[in-house]
Amino acid sequence: MAKIKAPNKNYTGVSAGVSFVKGEAETDDKWLIGWFKNKGYEVEENQPKKRATKKEGD
Fold this sequence. Notes:
two-stranded antiparallel ribbon; three-stranded antiparallel sheet; 58 residues; 5 strands; alpha+beta
């Protein structure tokens, strides 16, 4: 999931199908992440959390 930050920190609305509240939105769509980067939006990409796996015998 990536956090998208609009240039206008007070923006609330929909851009490119993504809902913004107070200048922030989230998406996991890689194409949209690239689109927002190219348009000058700040994008914070988080690494997906690894799921803990149960070891055999536990």
